[in-house]
Amino acid sequence: MSGILILGEIAENVVLPSTFEVIAAARELSGDLNEEVVVCLVGKNVKGLADGLIKGGADKVYVGENEHLETFQQEVYLAAFERICKEIQPSIILASKTDKISQIAPRLAFRLGVGLAQDCLALSVDSDSKNLKATRPVFGGNANAVIIFNGSTPCFATVRTKVFEPLNQDTSRSGAIIEVDLSIDKSIIKTKLVETVKEKVEGIRLEAAPIVIAGGRGLGGPDPFKQLEELAKLLGGAMGASRAACDAGWLDHSYQVGLTGKTVTPNLYLAVAISGASQHMAGCSASKNIVAINKDADANIFKDARYGVTGDWKTVLPAFIETVKELIND
Amino acid sequence: MAVDIVVCVKQVLDPEMPPSAFRIDADNKRFIPPQGIPPVVNGFDENAIEAALRIKESVGGKITVVSVGNNFQIDVMKKPLSMGADELILIQGDEFELLDSIGTAHVLAAALKKVESYQIVLCGRQASDWDNAQVPLVLAELLDLPSVTIAQKIDVGDNGLVTIQRAIQDGYEVIQGELPILVTVSNELGEPRYPTLRGIMAAARKTPLIFGVDDLDVQISDLEKKLHIEELFVPEKVSQCEIISGDNDSDAGRKLALKLREEKII
Q: Fewer CB within 10 Å: N-end or C-end of chain A?
């Protein structure tokens, strides 16, 4: 039982940034624990990606290639990771809590006979016992729980995306790349991806936008979002919304920012008539500048905001937009 | 082809409670129920009930709702019945208060043996108290069922083929699987329906089946916690917000734009 094993993830034959985030998190632990950082990568043709993982901070990479791993299929990927975990017997398993990992991690933990700490924001080593500790948000982010792993190994945690910064690629690093034989029994396949339907995006994608103009339940209906959209266009940004606004049917769920929606990290997040419940802030709290317009001076959003106006958006927003137009035309 | 459905639900503290009402018991690592604010059925579980009702409307079948917990408020837990579910099974006991995900899944798996027939198990994608998103998939492991997570639409075909739209960040995936299957449901499915007066009256006449740990085939060792919470705390937030004020709301809006320009944010 040794090593910190990271379940790597690829899309269109590129390692996802989230995998490098987890490598960075593991590197911090590896010093305290004197454990090496190992990444496993499975796919049809992934050997060529292993070196990038070493340069990104891994000590060793296991690659498992099989034609059935060409695209993500949950039962096949689960079986592949289960096989690798049982073979390597790491003391810690880490993965990013992406959509795909979320489909298999609880099953994998069960098969390994251990618990799983999901969606962690911080990992540390207890100075006395040397046990792993993981901090995870609960109750929509209203509280944090510190989980201590003091029993069976491996300790298994998934970490929230965009919490850890990937390390800079270090071209001087080298490490072993080890091939694992993965035979796949096709009879385990129970579900089939028939098609992927991508939403049509006009303008900038919400997750990539440098400026996000978001509205909440306080807007009272779908029409005010036209003003938000206009402002987003003026500033070269994208529009977002709280879950309440999407659930009310005012906007499509593709605009939803929050714990169960999109996570955005723009330079400016302008929250209009959003109260700032923890569940919403989970999707935008890493924004560089949160700015709030809300008539309730006690609204939670002001705890996270850098600048704010306490006033009725119906009057504040049009004046804000007019001034932005003047500034742009100057 | 009619399908019988089990929906697993959880009673949780109301996540819409005002932030000032949210309290934790740091010594015992649990949430303190707020005074005067009743618990609710977990929101995503209500989405799962809605999904079940739509399937029933489309192909027919029976909907059984199952919950594991303690201190159930029967009127709260009857809400799925008033929405249109057929039967309610409550597994109640003090030993269930602090179960972790794996323990809960074991109890649910044992409880499902009390259900005569089911081809679909529906769950909310996660519970709004501990946000673990693990019980459904561990339950699928225990029942040896395939699973599809984060459904926004579920169609059951004549041939036992289930077609599921699962919400992803930039659209949705269409996944197919065969019955029996476990599906977790997300809010993208749409707002759960409000109980009708007729539904409320029908629910009032129904008596939930209540079982305790002794009525189920569970090993106490299965209920032992795999993970230990060392600390539960509310993160401190120090507001550093600079409130921009003006002569009136309009002036404040104007000054906000000027401030953001001055700070090179826009």
A: C
Block residue for tokens 């003391």:
A91
Interface test mutation site (partner A, options B143, B144, B165, B227, max chain A beta carbons within 10 A): B227
How confident is the model over A221-233, as a mean pLDDT?
97
Question: Which residues in A lie closer than 8 A to residue B178 (C-beta atoms)?
Answer: 190
Asked if the structure places residue A95 within a domain, the reply is yes
To the nearest 10°, report the CA torsion of B150, B155, B158, B159. -30
> Could you tell me the residue ranges of all domains in chain B?
5-223, 236-266
Strands (E), chain B: 5-9, 11-12, 23-25, 30-32, 40-41, 63-69, 87-92, 120-124, 147-156, 161-168, 171-178, 181-185, 209-211, 228-233, 242-243
Query: Domain B5-223, what architecture?
Result: 3-Layer(aba) Sandwich (3.40)
What single-letter amino acid sits at A95? A
Closest CA to A64 of A82, A93, A44: A44
Q: Is the dihedral of CA A152, A154, A158, A159 positive or negative?
A: positive
* Rounded average pLDDT over B90-98: 91
Q: What is the largest CA-CA distance in chain A?
A: 66
> What's the confidence (pLDDT) of residue B193?
97
Token pair 């993830």 is at which residue?
Answer: A9
CATH of the domain at A89: 3.40.50.620
- Chain A closest CA to B52's CA: distance in Å? 18
Residue A320 in contact with partner chain B when CB distance is under 8 A: yes
Show the domain range for A118. 4-188
ipTM (interface pTM): 0.94
Q: Say if the Cβ atoms of A99 and B168 lie within 8 Å.
A: yes
Q: pTM for the complete prediction?
A: 0.93
* CATH number of the structural domain spanning residue A221: 3.40.50.1220
Q: Nearest by CB to B137, which of A107, A291, A306?
A: A107
Task: Please check whether residue A62 lies inside any domain of the structure.
Answer: yes
- When divided into structural domains, chain A yields a total of 2
Q: Which conformational region is residue B124 in: left (phi greater than 0), alpha (psi within -120 to 50 degrees), or beta?
A: beta
What does the alpha-carbon distance between residue A289 and residue B42 come to, in Å, rounded to a whole number? Answer: 32
| pLDDT at position A37 | 98
pLDDT digits 0-9 by tens, A90-125:
999 999 999 999 999 999 999 999 999 999 999 999
